[in-house]
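thought: fold this chain, then report.
action: predict
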Amino acid sequence: MANPRLALAFILGTVTLDAIGIGVIFPVMPDLIREVTGLSLSQAALWGGTLATSFAVMQFLFGPLIGALSDRFGRRPVLLLSLVVMALDYLVMALASTIWLLLAARVVAGITAATFSTAAAYIADITPPEKRGSRFGLIGAGFGVGFVLGPLIGGLLAGIDTRAPFYVAAGLATANLFFGYFVLPETITEATRRPFSLARANPLGALRAVSRLPGVRLTLACFVILGIAMNVYPAVWAYYGQARFGWDNGMVGVSLAVYGVSFALGQALLVGPLIRRFGEHRAAHYGMWVNVITLAGLGLVVSPILALALTPVTALGGVVTPALQALASRSAPANAQGEVQGVLSSLNAIAMITSPLIMTSTFSHFTRPDAPIFAPGAPFLLASGLMLCCIALHVLGPKIWPQQANKPA
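observation:
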């Protein structure tokens, strides 16, 4: 008989590997892009935004499709196949000698990372609705651990070779594949299996279907704005650290590790208690205010010590994503959890598409030689303003859709 704890460990490990795949390139990307293109740091930042956007475009296109496939054929085959492709893709990135091959590799990586929604659907399958917020927090913790390991792997191994981190990531993906093959049971049964519908497997069709669920539209809108604001970290942190504080690859990796540890601990230790105490709606509201303050602080700070001191505070803002996920999951029937999580994956992808372009362009504008004001923190100030817009939308929830202002479980 399958051990449910081992299955949960595999799911969290898969999410962690997804995060490693994103985070491993942060410290090395500026140098890697400059290595294969010969461009300046400011120009490399624009290419970095393009690579991040291509990754997100694939998540947008394939999130609902993979979610629908997992509702039809099961979570297990989708997750295991994604790990096979992920391991091969890391090897391609390790060998890439041109920016175009690197771009192609990020496209494939974006497709495999869309299985994040399948992992979330698996959690929803095995968790009662009132406990999903806490379990989604564990997914966030796994993402945070990956956010620590990825930059650390990238930053420390970059001293050996800019390609070394990708070989290590390929090995980790392969190890997790074998682990999952032996411990992961299927959660889709004949009672919850749903016929595949191409009309609902594309992003627009799935979004249209999910938005008809009672009380979910405002949650989806907040999810998008939140994603655009919070993706400022992966979009510009490495460039911001170099420009503002003169950090090298190793220090960028350490700073990202501080962020990742704080985020992981917050997701594992704070999300559950906060949601039980305040309910999903209020917990998300309070977390949004934390994000406003920390983002504004990073935009204005000039001391690297103060920047690192602010970083752990961001953990309190990490409650927002699992709280919104739980609100959306509560609205969906058992046979549509993959679809709902797929839509959330696509909405997050929209944020990942737009945020890097907006944030790296803002960074480039305020750091170029003829910039009117030298302000590497400008993207963080912009993100803080977006979070204020998110709060404005979120507080309308109880007035428009009272059922979303749920009380503590």
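thought: worth noting. The chain is about 80% helix and 0% strand.
final: tokens above.
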